[in-house]
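Hey, weird one. I pasted the Ribosomal-protein-alanine acetyltransferase sequence into the form twice and got a warning about non-standard characters only the second time. First submission, copied straight from the form history:
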Amino acid sequence: MFKIRDFRASDSSDIIEIDREAFNSLNPSYDLFIYLAYGSDIIVAEKNGRVIGYVVLMDLGEGAKIMSIAVKSDYRGKGIGKALLEEAIRRCRKRKKKTITLEVRISNLKAQELYKKYGFEIVGKLEKYYSDGEDAYLMQLKL
C-alpha cells in the first residue's frame, strides 16, 4: 500500500531519480528547483519510506497547471498515477480553480486515456514541443 502526502525536502533525490527515469530529463534537479522556487505544490506517493511517484501542480490564478506527473517504472499500472491525479484535482476544486491544464506527448496514449477518464479534453496541439521534436497535446479540465 502507498500513501499520498506533501513533498518534503528529503524527497528530492527520489523525485530527481523518477524524473530522470520517466522523462530522460537533462537536468531534473534544476526542474525541481524551479518548481519549488515558484511555489508549486509537489504531491508525492510514498511506499516504505520511498517516493514512488509525484505530481507538480502550479497555481496560475484562476487555473492551475500540472507541470509534471510521473511514477517509478516498477510501480506503474498500480493506481498510483490515478491517485496523484485525483489529489491534484481535489486540491484545485478546494481552491476553487476554474481549470487545470497539462501537456502530454502525442505518443503517450496511456496517459491521454487516464486524463480523459477524469474529464480532460484536448484543446490544442503544440508542434515540436519536446526536445526530441515530438508534438504535444494541450489538455484541459474545466472544474
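That's the output from the first submission. The warning seems to come from a hidden character in my clipboard, not from the data itself. The domain at 3-142 is CATH 3.40.630.30 (Aminopeptidase).
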